[in-house]
Amino acid sequence: MWLFLVTEVLFFGGVLCAYTAYRIWYPKEFEAGSTALNPLIATINTFLLLSSSFTITLAIRSAYKGEHAGLRLWLVATIVLGTVFLCFKAREYYGDYEEGLVPSQQKTLVDTVDESGKPILKEVSVFAVNLKHVLEEKEGKAKAISDKMTWNERERVQIFFMFYYSMTGLHVLHMIVGLGLLVWQLILAQMGFFRPTERYIYIEVMSLYWHFVDLVWIFLFPLLYMAGIHSVEHLHF
Amino acid sequence: MSDHVQKPIIFEEDHLPPATIGGSTLTFLILAGLACMATLIGFTDLGPAKVWVSLAVACVQGIVLTVFFMDLRHGDKLTWLTAVAALFWTFLLFLFTITDYLTRQFFAF
Asked: Principal place where this protein is found (chain B) (predicted)?
């Protein structure tokens, strides 16, 4: 499992490396993109995943001690926590979709001014208009970030969202695989596969994968959600 | 013909008992405390230092998770070598890629 996790580290390492290069190039765009995200759901999800890492270690101990009821309880608890994480994630994606924070080629016309201050009609992406609207709704520093940006810069925030969707999407995919493995372990536990001090290593090895999924999220949380400016007053689901 | 002696399935053996409930709870509380710290940093305007402070907290969280929850502290030499190799290859990946991009004379757009 550790060897497999090395390949996973390099897999996510490649994506994080690309993220780093683009963030160095476009710090303002990445800050604006992160500010537009929902930090409340991300924070709740962080604690859900950490709790699931805790419950799976309790499952290992129950398997070792031959406590079948305890083993099933902690496996179910881990599955429930992981599923609630995915439900919150789905709610977050839906919120992003509703706000129009999805990269696209769609264009629209907006009233703006040229370099000499003369009013003009400019063709910009629908994404840029939606982003401006979301940041203005958050008011305060978020609005100040948006006000300082040009339309071209707002359009480039799509790069941040490309990383946001691909990184969280890959993480969700890993979580679904992890949940599948957990269900498999639960079926084995139900069948009485685990005996006291024997075979608990199966759960221990699988837990390494689950902990790794948690580890990835620990880095995604500050890089994607906390790279912007957030205020407690504007937290919402 | 000698009697066939069945070899034990090594995979199913692990002589080390898993972490105690108290130990796991303490690890969880430390990780939760660090997560609170990461959230607090996220809601604070630290300027350019924010990313470094956030990543430092994430690294400490990662170490606690790997060493205690993933039980690396009881790992054999090969397990440690594997973990260190993962970090080393990731370091090289970042070093060569970022060095290349940052020393170019032009930007993408």
From this structure: membrane
